[in-house]
Amino acid sequence: MNVSILIKNLILFVCFVDLISTQEYNVRDFGAIGDGVTNDTKAVRDAWAAAAKTNGGRVIFDAGYNFLTAPFNLTTNGILDVRGTITASRNRSDYYPIPKEPW
To answer: Can you tell me whether residue 33 is helix, strand or coil?
Structure first.
């Protein structure tokens, strides 16, 4: 492989990673409480949906919080940034089939 092509690809990769890292979606900004009791599923899914609409980003679960949630889809170009705790909901109604991603 030509060295100049390799360097150009590396520069594009660095720019792409930088773009993703600048788009941050904190689940608390979408209504998550993070007390380990309140169901934060809707807020978590909304944060991932917002990230997906802008072609990715970093979805943040803050340190010092315990986010109670049902399953959620991770989207392409998304970064799962867990600084706190994610706990699975015990409520059966929170669980439904999640559509399979095409990739």
So the answer is: coil
**Percentages helix, strand, coil for the chain, rounded to the nearest 5?**
40, 25, 35
| Domain ranges across the chain | 3-94
State pLDDT tens for residues 49-103: 999 888 889 999 999 999 999 988 787 788 999 999 999 988 888 777 767 777 7
The Cα 48–Cα 25 span in angstroms is 8
Beta strands in the chain (DSSP E): 24-26, 35-39, 57-61, 66-69, 78-82, 85-88
Q: d(Cα 50, Cα 98) in Å, to the nearest integer?
A: 17
CA angle in degrees (0–180, nearest 5) for 42-73-97: 85
β-strand partners of 88: 69
Q: What is the dihedral of CA 31, 64, 74, 29, to 10 degrees?
A: 20
